[in-house]
Amino acid sequence: MYRIFSWNVNGLRSIINKGALQKLINEQKPTILCLQETKAKQGQAEIDLPEYEELWNSATRPGYAGTAIFTKIKPLSVRNNLPTQQDFVDQFGDPLTEGRVLTAEFEKFYLVNVYTPNSKNGLGRLALRKKMWDPGFLKYLKALEKNKPVVVCGDFNAAHEEIDIARPKTNHHSAGFTDEERQGITNYIKAGFIDTFRALYPNEIRYTWWSHWGHARENNVGWRIDYFFISRLLKDNLKSAEIYENYLGSDHCPISIELEF
Q1: What is the mean pLDDT of the chain?
Q2: Domain encompassing residue 123
Q3: CA-based torsion, 42, 43, 47, 53: positive or negative
Q4: Set 134, 155, 195, 226: catalytic member
Q5: CATH of residue 219
Q6: Which of 7, 117, 239, 243 has the greatest number of beta carbons closer than 10 A?
Q7: Which residue in the list 2, 110, 115, 247 is annotated as catalytic?
């Protein structure tokens, strides 16, 4: 049984100092833990997890973005970023230097950990998302899938349907809930990837991210923007999909799936 967890920690050093990472690992005992928005390079955070191998893809810019994977199972191969010759640079920089994609190959599947670029409050990065990032990332996943099934998890920075956001009507033109971003999620599903939580719980209203403003978390005014998608070939291997709202320390909460082979 693979217990795979994903968590946008909004600063790995911060969440370690709060004891939140240790609490999750001690209580849930993940086989593999994928982190986004680490905001640190390897060695900058005091991590004492001898059971786990550490994989890092940190941003060139200090204290920004970044992904990491802690795994009890040694991967067959590891790849950072997207293998593309396409120019992804926009006015905010180059997302391919921001440590946003980390891929680990295991015997039964590829595991892709992603921290999708935010479209920004003024939607200044929406064009990048629509024209380049979302189609480029999906193309990468489909290329991997030619070799073996894919598990992809992380912060996709988009709520898919109205059920995935507490206030859909007032956020229709907000970053994370535009038609373009929602279509990006739809395209993953049309390409054969299963939204694991929604597949098991089609009508449950649960969230994974809350704004720091207006006591949003206390009032559960949230968004579901963190996902596990799996290749259709893994549908029968999926045993659970969970959201852990009670784990604090970040503006996101952890999510998980269990796969049995």
Answers
A1: 95
A2: 2-259
A3: positive
A4: 155
A5: 3.60.10.10
A6: 7
A7: 115
